[in-house]
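Hypothesis: this fold can be encoded by more than one sequence.
Test: take the structure tokens below, design a sequence, compare later.
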């Protein structure tokens, strides 16, 4: 057999071994744009006594709608996607190239853990890979698709990537095998109850729960457009939003964004806090929205969500807007003995590192610590705005009234609470001290935000 025919035969063997995962890659990328790297990596597994075509992982680069990406796709058909040291080294090599060219990375993971027989060698490989992914964080965007079952240490990548996708009825992620978790918990449950997107509602991992690769592709393109192109032309710079004068629900509030640009991150967990990417007047921004009719109380989970999202804004130089409606830390024993204070401290450190514009809009309540952290000028917000009917106070109305007049037995508590709310929490008090830049009519919020962003964004 001549060398050309031998090459063609070997290529076909590699293609056949990764047929399904290559099909998944092709659903994401532009046609015929994939260029494979390290295609002829082979090693022998002493335990199985067989060759691992391509080391059980396909790496390379491609374009999606013209944008370049590096691709890392585990091939679960080679040793069930089992991780080997050579597998890790191949992925790390791809990440090195992504770092050198400042190109985003997309991972398609599917693995039942490490390959038996590798011993400590695979642990060294995993350490190399995990460290490399950590070094990329904040340098280039990293997208992770849980493309089947992902068990073991490779799941650590989900904690390092900026955006993680779970496919409905396909994706499962767990640090240990579900069988081990079943045994330890003593519960007879299925794998989706262990590591599906809905089951990880306190893990702050699932950025998106999607139906298919088509949906993933659309989201990746929207995020890429926002991160890659900070400012685009916008025709409706002076449009008012009269609906905001009538109601304050989040859907109406998000109408301040340019139409069709909003992407919500992490709607699978802590839904009382919305984290969105989008454009306001053509300017790419990140925004946190507190979604609660009577104000959101803070706990370690929703603060962690806010903190992680603020880190994304910081890493990629996005202006950061906070739409405030919060009562501060939830007052109960469980929350007091949690990480909420620690998480808030770390959030403040990240907020201080955001070099782009920081804007706060009190559209509901900013009570106590809720004001201090999310609206106070002294916290570093460039502009702070409040709606005319917002409430800014040391205490919520009833709580404040009861504390201040606790010794007076003849006071009508409800009337006093209303008086306290009207007089003590009027945002005009904060504005008099220079702490609120402007008290605004809600329908003109978009114009204020655009004007502020245009002044602040460089």
């Amino acid at each position: 057999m001549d060398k050309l025919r031998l090459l063609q035969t070997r290529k076909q063997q590699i293609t056949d071994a990764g047929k399904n995962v290559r099909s998944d890659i092709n659903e994401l990328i532009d046609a015929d744009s994939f260029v494979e790297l390290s295609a002829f990596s082979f090693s022998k597994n002493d335990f199985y006594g067989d060759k691992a075509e391509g080391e059980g992982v396909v790496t390379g680069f491609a374009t999606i709608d013209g944008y370049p990406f590096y691709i890392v796709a585990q091939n679960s058909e080679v040793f069930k996607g089992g991780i080997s040291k050579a597998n890790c080294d191949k992925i790390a090599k791809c990440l090195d190239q992504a770092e050198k060219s400042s190109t985003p990375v997309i991972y398609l993971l599917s693995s039942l853990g490490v390959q038996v027989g590798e011993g400590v060698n695979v642990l060294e490989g995993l350490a190399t890979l995990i460290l490399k992914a950590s070094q990329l964080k904040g340098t280039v965007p990293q997208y992770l698709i849980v493309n089947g079952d992902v068990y073991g240490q490779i799941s650590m990548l989900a904690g390092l990537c900026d955006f993680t996708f779970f496919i409905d009825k396909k994706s499962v992620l767990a640090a240990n095998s579900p069988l081990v978790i079943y045994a330890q918990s003593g519960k007879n449950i299925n794998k989706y109850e262990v590591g599906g997107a809905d089951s990880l509602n306190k893990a702050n991992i699932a950025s998106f729960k999607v139906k298919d690769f088509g949906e993933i592709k659309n989201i990746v393109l929207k995020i890429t457009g926002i991160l890659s192109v900070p400012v685009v032309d916008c025709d409706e710079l002076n449009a008012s939003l009269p609906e905001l004068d009538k109601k304050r629900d989040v859907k109406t509030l998000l109408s301040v964004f340019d139409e069709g640009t909003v992407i919500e991150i992490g709607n699978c967990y802590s839904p009382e806090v919305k984290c969105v990417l989008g454009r306001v007047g053509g300017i790419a921004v990140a925004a946190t929205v507190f979604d609660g009719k009577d104000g959101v109380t803070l706990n370690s989970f929703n603060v962690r969500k806010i903190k992680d999202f603020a880190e994304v804004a910081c890493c990629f130089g996005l202006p950061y807007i906070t739409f405030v409606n919060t009562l501060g830390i939830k007052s109960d024993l469980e929350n007091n003995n949690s990480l909420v204070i620690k998480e808030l401290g770390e959030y403040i450190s990240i907020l201080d590192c955001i070099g782009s514009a920081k804007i706060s809009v009190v559209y509901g309540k900013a009570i106590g610590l809720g004001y201090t952290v999310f609206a106070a000028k002294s916290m570093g917000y460039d502009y702070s705005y409040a709606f005319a009917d917002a409430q800014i106070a040391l205490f919520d109305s009833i709580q404040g009234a009861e504390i201040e007049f606790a010794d007076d037995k003849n006071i009508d508590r409800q009337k006093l609470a209303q008086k306290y709310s009207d007089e003590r929490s009027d945002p005009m008090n904060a504005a008099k001290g220079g702490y609120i830049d402007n008290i605004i009519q809600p329908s003109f919020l978009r114009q204020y935000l655009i004007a502020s962003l245009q002044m602040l964004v460089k």
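Residues 85-101 form the longest helix (17 residues). The two ends are 62 Å apart (CA to CA).
Hypothesis status: open.
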